[in-house]
Amino acid sequence: LDAALLVKCSADPSRHIRYEALRAAGDMASLSSADFLKLIRAEETDFRVRSITANSLRRRTGTTPEELAALATWIAPASHGATVREKYETDFLRYQIRWAFETHSTSAIALLKSELPPEARLLVILSLPAEQAAMELVGRLPTLGRPLNAQEIGLLGGQLKLPAVSDAFSKMLASDATRVSTLQSLLTFDASAASDENLRRAVAGAASALGAGEKDLVLALARKFRLGELVPVVTKLADGGTISRADALKTLYEMGAAVPENFEPFLGDPDPDIRREAVIGYCASSGAMGVPKIVAMWESLPGVLRELAVNGMLRTKKGAEAF
Q1: How far is residue 53's CA from residue 42's CA, in Å, rounded to a whole number?
Q2: What is this structure's pTM?
Q3: Cα-flanking dihedrals φ and ψ of residue 121, to 5°?
Q4: Which of 65, 205, 245, 273 could form a disulfide with 107 if both were Cys (CB 3.0 to 4.6 A apart)?
């Protein structure tokens, strides 16, 4: 193979031949940057060809800013497309191009000094080290022109220790236009990110301001971030009939911040779902102090509730000894 042949094949009417040409180019150490640029066609529409181009650039050594910039016109907003397949292809291509940016970080940083389409610039920013990326993204917020996607919100949410990022994030949560979408994106966070104290405080304040129409979001956030601050909010939603009592008790238990008094009034409730959640929450939160109450009720508990009660009482050493 030589550069001239690859250039010819990269323009072939057959997408399969174009794919093989770009795949081979990634393994040719002797191929210059100038020759590789000749292989990249801005008008290329085939997903596999675009994908292998990004992958080949990632695998090459010394990939230049000009080579990375050639991918810019292919970058669409996250999950863009009319069908499930189109959305998948958009996101997978974004992932591969971002990987190329991250691999060749020096060249990617140089791209920020050049003219780029908005989505390409944002993807370059996401490829930077987290603190630098968060600050760059905050600087772009006034002219962004669209809501942040889940990755961008996740980036900011993980860097709230930076005053400028914390201020921007607080404004997003305070705005009626962005509060709900921002909070919904936070539900995708992993457990370690959701435990960040700065983020938890921000989420608790914003969730408390949500109306009854967002009850499902309130419950999901309370469970995800284990927000003890929302115990009064969840209790109020149940007292007003906005959510079922069983859902409220289940949420209080999963939040890990409730006290026995939240569950005790419902231990004898005639509704089996309410009673089940009450027993689970009471036994888990009361420890050794709740044993006498459960023992007094033991004969009236069905077999399944007895098992749940035992599991709850055995969660702590003192509870197990008392039981």
Answers
A1: 11
A2: 0.70
A3: -60, -40
A4: 65
